[in-house]
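Sequence, structure tokens reproduced for absentees:
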Amino acid sequence: MIFPIVFLWKRLTFCQNNVIPHTYCEHIGLAKYACNDICVNIWYRLFVLMSPVVLDTLLTFVSYMLILYAVFHMSSQDACQKALITCGSHVCIIIRFYGPGIFTPLTQMFGHHIPPHIHILLANNVCVLAPPMLNPIIYGNKMKQIQQQMAHIFFPK
């Protein structure tokens, strides 16, 4: 899915600035500096962005429905609770993984009213800062002590 992007870039001519004002090279971020029409690039990027997300979301939803069906038919309440906690962590990781991957290209394509420095700051925070910060919280939430502290923070008595 990524290989055709090289040929989409190759057909473009760049007549503006040759410096990308981003911290990483993103397809639409680079294509926006072309003098040519980039409609094909935009539609291809939207296809590349949405096709795996839609397919993965559909397959994940079906698999979690089957998992939840199996979990709720367990005889042990403790095993049911552990399975739900594990599933909750997995869903959080899936959201954390797909969120930045969807956020950045969509703001590149449709966020024309967002100033470039704000876009770069948001993209860096969402893609670079948030994942390492959230992983310990998501995976650590399985520990009993962390669960108790989180419950104490969010639901004080």
Notes: The longest helix spans residues 39-72. The chain has a mean pLDDT of 78.
